[in-house]
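Incident log, support desk, overnight shift.

02:14 A customer reports that sequence design results differ from what the structure should imply. Their input is reproduced verbatim below. On-call engineer (initials T.W.) acknowledged and began investigating.
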């Protein structure tokens, strides 16, 4: 009899506990665990044009040594040298850093950049990230230049740019993004101009570039960690996001809330209208930390976010960074947790809902910075004034990459939710 009584009480308590439900507004999915970087594949271009960076006391050696060392603190690094095909470096990270000072590494033939980017990108699969260091000079093969000394200048904007575009379009279609850091360094050695003529340079400032290729979230995570560790910061940088726009968002149920409505499964529901009703305002959280720095600014977001609402009049009235929020009102633990996962908060005002429900789409089209167009690029590198601190045809290389990511269907952000009476 005692056992039956205990069983009855247990079932009763279980039934009471089963009726305890979270408030409708607090229904959320469990947070997904972010992927972490598994391995880093580090490539150094070693064609002969790179030799001048490795002679004497150059910033190139300092930067490359630091990048490969600090990368190895983030995830295990495998080092490769590359001209036409990648060659694994057997000495490990320590041996590679030492060889930068003691071994003539840059003695290979001229390289085809689009082919190299394809080989480097092939390593950026799964949770692996690839890094590529190069002077990024676009050029046809030596044999072609011997036949036509002007082939590089005449065809960089067509053939060479489109070869680069094709390679990065393939990466973009697989959800692989890219980030590039631009540096300057003294150069001591033979410089090959666009006609393949040689000039000896001493301590002339020459650009070089460090590319990071991988899933957008992994590249953003790598950038954050590396920037915290680097003593020598890039002079410029540019991030090319992966093809699929951010779709994850969080609808807050109290933050910046006005009017009478409820949050349910990411939609704004049970909205009350009427002469005495306060116009409904609601806030959405987005994690934009993986976007380029300029695309995270509130002014950029206000100017470039595209809001489309069918059967409704909806306005974006505020864009705030998380750290700039006025959170004097007490927030529930659950909402504080939601806020902690997002970098920005967008607040909207519903002015009218024509039908019983409306579909809302929010997009942030991809736009990229263009610092490389004039200050870093030249189409005549035969004299110092034309080449100093500039890279031949860089504008066409970068435009080829940009056009692979900045398409009419490519967005930094793209998601849809509903408004319901």
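02:41 Re-run completed on a clean worker. Output:
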């Amino acid at each position: 009899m005692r056992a039956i009584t205990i069983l009855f009480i247990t079932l009763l308590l279980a039934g009471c506990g089963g009726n305890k439900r979270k408030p409708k507004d607090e229904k959320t999915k469990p947070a997904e665990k972010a992927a972490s970087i598994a391995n880093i594949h580090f490539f150094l271009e070693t064609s002969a044009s790179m030799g001048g960076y490795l002679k004497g006391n150059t910033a190139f050696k300092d930067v490359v040594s630091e990048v490969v060392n600090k990368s190895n603190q983030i995830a295990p690094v495998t080092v490769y040298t590359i001209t036409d095909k990648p060659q694994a470096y057997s000495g490990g990270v320590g041996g590679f850093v030492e060889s930068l000072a003691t071994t003539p590494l840059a003695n290979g033939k001229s390289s085809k950049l689009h082919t190299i980017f394809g080989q480097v990108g092939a390593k950026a699969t799964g949770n692996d990230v690839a890094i590529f260091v190069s002077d990024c000079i676009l050029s046809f093969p030596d044999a072609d230049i011997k036949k036509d000394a002007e082939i590089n200048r005449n065809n960089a904007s067509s053939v060479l740019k489109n070869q680069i575009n094709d390679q990065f379009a393939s990466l973009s279609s697989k959800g692989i993004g890219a980030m590039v850091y631009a540096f300057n360094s003294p150069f001591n050695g033979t410089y090959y101009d666009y006609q393949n003529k040689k000039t000896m340079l001493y301590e002339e400032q020459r650009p070089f570039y460090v590319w990071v290729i991988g899933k957008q979230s992994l590249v953003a995570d790598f950038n954050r960690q590396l920037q915290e560790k680097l003593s020598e910061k890039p002079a410029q940088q540019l991030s090319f996001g992966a093809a699929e726009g951010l779709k994850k968002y969080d609808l807050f149920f109290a933050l910046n809330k006005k009017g009478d409505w409820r949050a349910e499964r990411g939609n704004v529901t049970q909205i009350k209208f009427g002469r005495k009703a306060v116009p409904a305002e609601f806030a959405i959280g987005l994690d934009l930390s993986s976007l380029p720095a300029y695309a995270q600014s509130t002014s950029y977001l206000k100017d470039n976010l595209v809001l489309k609402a069918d059967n409704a009049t909806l306005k974006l009235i505020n864009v705030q960074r998380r750290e700039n929020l006025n959170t004097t009102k007490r927030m529930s633990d659950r909402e504080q947790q939601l806020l902690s996962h997002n970098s920005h908060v967008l607040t909207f005002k519903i002015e009218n809902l024509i039908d019983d429900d409306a579909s809302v789409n929010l997009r942030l089209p991809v736009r990229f910075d263009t610092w490389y167009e004039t200050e870093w690029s030249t189409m005549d590198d035969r004299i110092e004034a034309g080449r100093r601190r500039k890279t031949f045809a860089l504008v066409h290389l970068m435009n080829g990459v940009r056009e692979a990511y900045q398409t009419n269907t490519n967005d930094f952000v793209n998601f849809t939710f509903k408004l319901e009476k």
